[in-house]
Write a structure and sequence with these properties.
With 87 residues, the chain is mostly helical. The protein has a domain of 33 residues. The protein is 37% helix and 0% strand. It is built from 3 helices and no strands.
Length: 87
């Protein structure tokens, strides 16, 4: 029986030699706060329906518009309900 050679997954390849002495903590933190960063991962079947992020955004905006317009039709009355008293 041959032994499998185990490769440590936490080792970087030689071409990714990172110098931690030059690292800056929170370098992009303020920019992320200002611009925002939302990452959404689509399931493969959903991703096939859209060619790019613009198409996804357009579809979601259309859905939001429809939801807003239909919500107005089904809102409850602002009239206060009568309290039922036990007899």
């Amino acid at each position: 029986m041959k032994r499998k050679i185990e490769v440590s997954s936490d080792d970087l390849r030689p071409e990714y030699n990172f110098d931690y002495a030059k690292a800056v903590r929170g370098k992009y933190y303020r920019r992320l706060l200002k611009e925002g960063a939302n990452v959404v991962v689509l399931e493969p079947d959903v991703a096939k329906a859209f060619r790019d992020s613009t198409a996804v955004n357009d579809a979601l905006r259309s859905l939001l518009k429809t939801a807003r317009s239909s919500r107005r039709l089904t809102t409850r009355s602002s009239r206060t309900a009568r309290k039922h008293t036990a007899a």
